[in-house]
Amino acid sequence: MTQRLDDAIRAPFDGDSTDTLVVGTLLTLASVSTPVLGVLLAGYAVRAIRRRARGDGLAAFDDWRGLAGDGVRVAAVTLPLHLPAVGVVALVGLDRTLMSISSLAHFGSPFLAPDYAAVAALLFVVVLELLAGYLSVAGLVRVAQVGSLRGYHVGDVVALARDPGFARAFALACVVGVVARLAGLAVAALPFVGVPLGAFVAFVGLVVAASVLAGVVPTDGDGRLTVSTATRSTRTLSEG
């Protein structure tokens, strides 16, 4: 795992990566004001996972149609995972859900009682979103592996999510994401260059996290990604 992390940290700077880093930084900047561009970043994450799994260098920003297609596929398999949490919030009410924590200030008051039902709903939403986030990353990795929705099956995603190797890679990718986020916020406070530097750090974090996740994608002896059923996928990833 240590060696894998070392390789992942070097991944954004493999070879002639200047053009890719510049485009990635600009795209990250643009996605802040135009969130739909996040689809392209998701597509790039898929491409980065594929290339790193094969042992290739940094993925380039070319074939934009393919990049967008991968991003749309990621959105198609991950957005439905967040619908249960949205449903709970819609049922309870957004304002009531957001105010639930502050209502705990009335604990012990003889006049006002905390909204325990809303607090429970909020905690349930948090649990649902944590699970959705975990499965979303597993879905992204599976999209990178199969390359299309025709070979995508929920059972394979669940099998991947249950694999200890994926759990470790996910945890490490989360650490990378948190560190990149904190570093990005720190440099963003700098005058003039802070915002673009923050976007650069965020994109580098994306590449490093994708490289970490690539370590759980099985390949054959020639470095080609293998596509397998849920049972075989679990066994292969565990052994890898």
Silhouette:
globular
Beta-strand segment tally: 0
Average pLDDT works out at 85
The largest pleated sheet is described as: none
Indicate how many domains the architecture comprises.
Answer: 1
Order of helices and strands: HHHHHHHHHHH
For the CA atoms, what is the radius of gyration?
A: 20 Å
Keywords: Membrane, Transmembrane, Transmembrane helix
Organism: Halogeometricum limi
Protein name: DUF4013 domain-containing protein
Pfam family, one: DUF4013
Structure characterization notes:
70% of the residues lie in helices and 0% in strands. With 240 residues, the protein is mostly helical. Helix 9 (164-188) packs antiparallel against helix 10. The chain is globular, with a radius of gyration of 20 Å. The protein starts with a helix and ends with a helix. This is DUF4013 domain-containing protein.
Write the layout of secondary structure elements.
Blueprint: H1 2-10, H2 18-33, H3 38-53, H4 64-78, H5 83-92, H6 94-98, H7 116-146, H8 154-162, H9 164-188, H10 194-214, H11 230-239
Organism: Halogeometricum limi
Keywords: Membrane, Transmembrane, Transmembrane helix
Transmembrane segments: 20-46, 74-94, 116-141, 169-193, 199-217
List keywords for this structure.
240 residues; globular; disordered C terminus; DUF4013 domain-containing protein; membrane
In short:
With 240 residues, the protein is mostly helical.
